[in-house]
């Protein structure tokens, strides 16, 4: 038990350290949180989806990606990245964002369900009331 906990701590420390090394090289151009347009040319990477980041890094790595005169710069940056590096970088930049989005979607869905239920209850109640009134009226006519 204790060993497992220590191992987990070591693994998470290692992956954090490895990750810090990976993106430290990017910060000079893209900003610490990928919040800048690198050299005035790139998209703001933190606004991209995880899939887009992976796709564009793989394309730079293959030497085919890019959209400005500065694409050679980024192709050089991506050359040294493994697919695992690319996955980890994209997860770090955009992974949490997608989790947050799916959590938001869940809340929105739950709210919609609740609204549907409430609307249904109101409709049911209206039908009940109308039925009861009609029944009373019919009973009055029979008297
Ligand atoms: C020397 C400056 C520089 C460094 C360092 C750098 N980049 Fe870039 N990056 C750019 C430029 C310039 C572009 C836009 C190139 C283009 O496609 O025309 C770009 C584009 C990108 C894009 C695609 C955004 C778009 O505009 O389509 C991603 C994703 C990206 N970089 C990630 C990284 C990552 C991850 C690192 C670190 C491993 C990194 N960059 C390091 C300059 C840099």
Strand content: under 5%
Looking at CATH, the homologous superfamily is Cytochrome c-like domain
Count helical runs.
4
Kindly identify the CATH topology: Cytochrome Bc1 Complex, Chain D, domain 2
Low-confidence runs: 17-21
For the record, the CATH architecture stands as Orthogonal Bundle
Number of discrete domains: 1
Over the alpha carbons, how many angstroms does the gyration radius reach?
28 Å
What would you say this structure looks like, in words?
The chain is mainly alpha-helical. It contains 4 helices and no strands. The longest helix is centred in the C-terminal third of the chain and has 60 residues, at 83-142. Bound molecules: heme C.
Key terms:
143 residues; mainly alpha; Cytochrome Bc1 Complex, Chain D, domain 2; 4 helices; 0% strand; binds heme C
Per-chain topology:
Layout: H1 2-30, H2 50-61, H3 71-79, H4 83-142
Helix pairs in contact: 2-3, 2-4
This protein binds heme C.
The site of heme C has 24 residues, from α1, α2 and α3.
Short synopsis of the structure:
With about 140 residues, the chain is mostly helical. It is built from four helices and no strands. About 10% of the residues are buried.
């Amino acid at each position: 038990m204790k060993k497992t906990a220590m191992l987990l701590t070591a693994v998470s420390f290692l992956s954090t350290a490895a990750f810090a090394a990976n993106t430290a090289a990017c910060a000079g151009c893209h900003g610490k949180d990928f919040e800048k347009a690198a050299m005035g040319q790139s998209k703001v990477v933190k606004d991209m989806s995880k899939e887009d980041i992976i796709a564009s890094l793989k394309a730079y790595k293959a030497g085919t990606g890019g959209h400005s005169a500065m694409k050679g710069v980024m192709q050089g940056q991506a050359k040294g990245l493994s697919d695992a590096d690319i996955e980890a970088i994209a997860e770090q930049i955009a992974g949490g964002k997608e989790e947050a989005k799916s959590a938001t979607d869940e809340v929105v869905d739950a709210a919609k369900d609740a609204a549907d239920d409430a609307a249904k209850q109101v409709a049911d109640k209206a039908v009940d009331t109308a039925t009861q009134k009609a029944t009373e009226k019919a009973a009055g006519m029979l008297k």
